[in-house]
């Protein structure tokens, strides 16, 4: 698979699915959607179906569903005024449903893709009582005594491991030690002397990883559980990345178009499984990013809708339009800065 195809599939499908969530949530509540676009700017292709003009537009950095009543109307003098139809006539829960529809669809797609990966690759299950050697450092004690990548350490000095980190216990006592190692289905003893003159054994290791192959429902449940466990760290990563961007410290925790192209190229070279994994990660990222309370994003709109309801509609339409415009400009500037930092990171400053 080439990079361009991988990029089109990942971004195109992710954007389409996100906007489809808004579209379906609106249409199910009887709200018109005059236009639906993948991409911004001048339309390259367009067609009419089910009362909506479906567009494929020039700039593939997002998309939109033009939902009736979400944008303010304009008075004869050109001033914005509150819309009285479509989205604005929905109850609070209906508005929230429309606004979170895109996030929900991105999450569903991510979970389906992750479930497929788990079905093909298996669900990783760490075996804490076995230490697997991942890497042996050149010139280290581990290399001298014959440890090899792939070795499974089962016991230290005849004592079965309670946890894989028990390998470090050999540094607690100088003198002779032995590892009971499983290598290529055969159990061997690796003997060595720890004299305390080195900092470490010279291995990188972790728990043994076994792979289970559940059915689709089991894999889907695992995808939901693992992503929900991962979301807090993703939020922290976004926060650190955005803070770094704003103060001029490039961070690999957040990437723009150039970074996504680079990741798509690496995934395309690795094969379909890597492309699907990247697509799942991007959909999770889109869901989290869109929930940030930044004007112009779904999270910002959610915050404004809730505040407007709590204050009895005191946020005037022109103020809401201005807040969303400022948020949109901020997002464009943020994208430009991230793109510039991507270029510095990947091609040299």
From TrEMBL:
One of its GO terms (biological process) is proteolysis. Gene3D superfamilies: 2.30.42.10. Keywords: Hydrolase, Membrane, Metalloprotease, Protease, Transmembrane, Transmembrane helix, Zinc. It is found in: Membrane. The keyword Transmembrane applies. Its main location: membrane. InterPro entries: PDZ (IPR001478), PDZ_6 (IPR041489), PDZ_sf (IPR036034), Pept_M50_Zn (IPR004387), Peptidase_M50 (IPR008915). Residues 116-185 form the PDZ domain. Its cofactor is Zn(2+). Belongs to the peptidase M50B family. This is RIP metalloprotease. It comes from Oceanithermus profundus.
